[in-house]
Structure formats: structure tokens, C-alpha cells
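Help needed: design a sequence for this.
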């Protein structure tokens, strides 16, 4: 049967299709062997070795990906830590500024308080001097001290930081301020510190007086 007869017959196209399919399959088979069989390429590589190599490469890529992810996370953590440090530094600087402002306010308040205390101390000194001068010559019918002693017909001669010098029916007396009634202590504004200073000054004046008397006696002699 000739080729034309085959084509004209009912079986011709089916046989040709079968032949073409075989040719294609043979061609793919040859390419597959050349691509994956190392024996056809001058080597001994098999499909199994090729797949194993691909798995190794995939695993290597996975390890590299995991390592990169770890590094990225670490970098993100460093960035977060750096941002936290920047925030902390800003908060510290803000606190330092507030502390500086508070210190300045306290210093100003202390300066103002010192000025007010000095002014109050001057006022107290002026008040003491005024009321003590006014008291000189004042007559008091009776003066009872803290220990119960009673002085009659009292006249105040002088008021110092140490106490009150009086004249009374039976003579004269300097009464330390601690022995005076509470209302007199408050009125004349006595206190221990000023009394101690007055006593030191009084002793110094007494010492100088004695030295002067002794020097005069030596000159007379």
C-alpha cells in the first residue's frame, strides 16, 4: 500500500498520528536523558542525585533565610533599643531642666526668706528698744516673780537683755528675765541668745574697767 493509498484509506490518519506521537516521546526521552543523566553528559549523575542536590540547595537557602531573619530581628531590636535610649535621654534632659528650675525657685525663695528674716530681726530690735525705753520709770504696785517672791512699790529703772532692774520698797534688785511673769517676758521680747551676748559684753566691760582702775592706781602709786 502506497502512502497516498494509506492517506486515502480510513486507517491512514490514525497510523500517522501514532507515528508522530512516538517520535515526540522519543525526542523528550532523549532530552530528559541528556538533561539528567550524567552518563550521557560525560558524568555519572542520576535523577536521584540531582533531586538531592536541589534539596541541599533549598536547605541552604532556608538556612540563609533564617540567618537573615535573625539578623533583621536583631537590627530591629537594636533600633528599638536606640529609640528607647533616645527617649530616656530626652526624659532625663527634661527632668534636669525641671530640677534646674526648681533649684532656681528654691534659691530665690531662700534669698527672699533671708531678706524677710533680716527685716523681721530689725523690726524686733526696734520694738525691743522702743518698749524697753518706755518702761523706764514705770511704777508697778506689785511684782511677783516665778519663785513666788513679791516686791512692793516697784519702779522699773532699766530693762536689758539680761532682765529688769527695779527699785522697790526694800531696796533695789536686778531680776533675770527667766524669773519674770510670762506676760513681761513676751512684752519685752527676752531670749537666751541675746542674754548670752549681753552677759559677755558686760563681763568684757567689767574686765576693762578693772584694768583701767588698776592702771590708774599704778600711776598714782
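Sure. Designed sequence:
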Amino acid at each position: 500500500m502506497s502512502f497516498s493509498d494509506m492517506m486515502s484509506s480510513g486507517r491512514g490518519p490514525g497510523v500517522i498520528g501514532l507515528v508522530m506521537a512516538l517520535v515526540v516521546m522519543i525526542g523528550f526521552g532523549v532530552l530528559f536523558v541528556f538533561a539528567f543523566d550524567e552518563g550521557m553528559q560525560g558524568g555519572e549523575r542520576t535523577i536521584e542525585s540531582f533531586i538531592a542536590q536541589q534539596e541541599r540547595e533549598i536547605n541552604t537557602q532556608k538556612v540563609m533565610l533564617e540567618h537573615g531573619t535573625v539578623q533583621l530581628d536583631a537590627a530591629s531590636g537594636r533600633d528599638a533599643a536606640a529609640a528607647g535610649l533616645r527617649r530616656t535621654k530626652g526624659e532625663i534632659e527634661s527632668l534636669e531642666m525641671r530640677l534646674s528650675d526648681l533649684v532656681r525657685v528654691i534659691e530665690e525663695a531662700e534669698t527672699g526668706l533671708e531678706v524677710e528674716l533680716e527685716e523681721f530681726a530689725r523690726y524686733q530690735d526696734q520694738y525691743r528698744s522702743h518698749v524697753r525705753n518706755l518702761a523706764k520709770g514705770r511704777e508697778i504696785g506689785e511684782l511677783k516673780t516665778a519663785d513666788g517672791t513679791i516686791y512692793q512699790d516697784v519702779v522699773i529703772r532699766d530693762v536689758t537683755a539680761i532682765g529688769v532692774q527695779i527699785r522697790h520698797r526694800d531696796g533695789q534688785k536686778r531680776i533675770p528675765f527667766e524669773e519674770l511673769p510670762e506676760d513681761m517676758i513676751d512684752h519685752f521680747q527676752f531670749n537666751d541668745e541675746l542674754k548670752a551676748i549681753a552677759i559677755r559684753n558686760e563681763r568684757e566691760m567689767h574686765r576693762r574697767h578693772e584694768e583701767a582702775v588698776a592702771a590708774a592706781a599704778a600711776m598714782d602709786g
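Strands lie at 139-144, 150-159, 163-168, 171-176.
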